[in-house]
Amino acid sequence: MEYAALSDLLFIPRVKPEETLDRELELYSPNVRSVAGLLHDGSHRKLTASGPDDIDSLRWVQDEHAIQALQDGEVEVRISHVLLDSFNIQNSLRDGETPTFGREAVGFITRLNCENQSLEIGQRVLTIVPNAFKTHICQRDSLVRPVPTVLPSDFAVSIASTFATAWHALHNAGQFVKGDYVLIDAAAQNFGQAVIQLVQMFEGRPLVSVSSEGEKKMLMDKYNIPEDGILGMPGSFTARDLAAQTDGRGVDIIIGSSSGVALRHLSTCLAEGGRFVDICRHAMATDLDPTFFKRNASFSSVNLDTLAQDRVFNLVDTVFQLEQLIGVAEHHTTKTYSVADIGKALSAAQSDEKNCSIIVSFDEGAIVPLMPALPPKLTLSSDSSYILSGGLGALGLSIADSLITHGARHIVFLSRSGASSLRQKAALKDFNERGCTIETIQCDVTDAVQVELAAQSCKMSGWKVKGIIQCAMVLQDSIFENMTYERWCATVNPKVKGTWNLHSLFPLDLDFFIVLSSMSGVIGNAGQANYCAGNTYEDSLAHYRRNIGLAGTSLDVGLVTDASHFDKGSTFNSTSEEYLKKYKHWNSAQVTNGELQIVLAAVMRGTSYPNGKPFVPQLLVGITDDIQRGDEPGWSQDRKFDHRVSQIVVNAHPNSDEVSTGQKMRSARTANEAALAVEEALKTNIAVAITAQPNDIDVGKPLFTFGIDSLKAIEVRNWIFAELQADISVFDVLSQTPISDLAFIIVERSSLISDEVKRAADSAVVSDGWA
Length: 771
Prior knowledge:
Elements: E1 4-6, E2 9-11, H1 19-28, E3 35-38, E4 45-49, E5 58-62, E6 74-84, H2 89-95, E7 102-113, E8 124-128, E9 136-140, E10 144-146, H3 153-173, E11 181-184, H4 190-201, E12 205-209, H5 213-223, E13 230-231, H6 239-245, E14 251-256, H7 260-267, E15 270-278, E16 298-301, H8 309-320, H9 325-328, E17 334-338, H10 342-349, E18 357-361, E19 367-370, E20 385-389, H11 396-405, E21 410-415, H12 422-433, E22 437-442, H13 448-460, E23 465-470, H14 485-505, E24 512-518, H15 520-523, H16 529-547, E25 553-557, E26 559-560, H17 576-582, E27 590-591, H18 593-605, E28 618-621, H19 661-667, H20 671-689, H21 710-723, H22 730-734, H23 739-749, H24 755-767
Parallel strand pairs: 11-12, 11-14, 12-13, 14-15, 15-16, 17-18, 20-21, 20-23, 21-22, 23-24, 24-25, 25-28, 26-27
Antiparallel strand pairs: 1-2, 3-19, 4-5, 6-7, 6-9, 6-18, 7-8, 8-10
Helix pairs in contact: 1-18, 3-4, 3-8, 11-18, 13-14, 14-16, 19-20, 20-23, 20-24, 23-24
């Protein structure tokens, strides 16, 4: 039994969860789940897809780029409306990263860092970007345009690119002049209607192709196009038919969206010197009529996605300046969806209905799937120096890499032998190339004289040391009875003398002083009495530093399963899987290098997220909250781990002769009989979790009195759902409801129970006041 005495009080050790750090690790895991929340909660977010071809995987994540300071000539726009681009929906969903199915956006300027006199805070503007599904967009001031006050936002965002493309196709590529005959392919679609309006606006003569009677009637009603000016799909009319419609001259301009055979047919209808403008992005010149170019005709393709941005915005300027633009609104059909219904908007944009612009509105009250915000990014001082003692080993180089990633530009390694291996030299070269100055001081940290010289060297060089990480370790494993004094000292001294020397001889005003201890000092490890002793000393020194007001944290690191000491030919000469099969006691105390780096960054940051409280001086890194207590003796039986033991142990004492709880529930003839079976199952599992006997569990008490917290409640609820087939909430588990009454609630909701017994259980629940 372990205990500590202080001021006439006895203390017993218990490993308690550091819930904020557990949550931080969860936030960085690939399995973190989204939560429903307000999109406009003050954060800067962007839409991402967690998997390809999966609309349901869309969620909003923190946009770190958007919160950075604006560069010269930049503005920030808070987005209010985005136009869906149906052409890019499938392509962007396949990416599995950031969707690009929205390019045009309207919003309001929230920040300015430019001298553009036409822009001001609060002004409504339009911009075009590769991915507009963000709450805020940072853009060059030359790539935003004030929206005319007479245009509603949904109309402005829907016509910008459509009419800019139509203008470019008609006037620039098509070289339109007054009186030209213009054949518009698939004219009922949004783009086709935009071309019709521009042709009529500038006194041209539109001819249109449609695919249905409904489209024909719509165009006749909207644009007063005569019936003989409306054609079927390509192939249903001939050049001779068009000659009759055009006083024998043929069509001057064709705006086409066809390919293959349909394209060849269309190209035969072009007049001498005519212009064919393709907007479908799939047309091939080889599909044109063989006589096409002999008629002095031209073929061009229009795609605003590949046009220089400045030219695109010049086209937008032209469109916004059209005097007749207000009249266009009468014919332009839009449908607006809330950003909360983006799935419905995407489905609508992919439907066969192409004559309606689909707009997504970022309305204020929209509830969307949000990825929880990440903690503030650690930013280390580029002007300070950071000491890594023993940092050229398996984990030290990974830590150095993380320091550089977080802004460190001067790292000092203290090492007995310096960088001797090819791996070490390659790593240091990489660090230098990334802009970090690397110093390697040959120093045995167990020697106070050498450490003092290293500290003086730092001071004389003008290096401002702001952080120390102690990684030094030596393994000399042996059964304690056979361990020599030399072996003992070889392992203990780097941990004891080395850590004390760093503490006492380097500056005290550090941002962090972190020692990489080991979980073995807490759980024990056969043949490592010396190593365990050194680790517990480091833990105590961290507590001591914190008690005297200095920075100090000891990380008791579990088995790092992806560290280089599991590489072939390295320290353990086996894979982590092989090692864990042999040394099963590490199964509940393992961690990955990535998880360790997250913990290190949090400790260097100094406070937990989001409550901003300092971390405790000793952290166990990698111990699971699902420790299984079997019949074999070992560290898991130690009472200090009671709060990390699995609170629900299914079939804790399996016996083939025993009848399962589910079978008892199915065969129950009364509600009391079924509830008793549930009650016994709950008592058995709780007893195993707290190393007690089932008869010791008072069913008159609620579950939370036996250590079921908010995290464990989820596990309890899942077990009840899976084993007892009853759907209860986490709130039921955490409520004041005694176990005896909770058993009736489970019976009433279980699919294992007959309706007759359920009704009896329901009556029992209601009579006790727990309905």
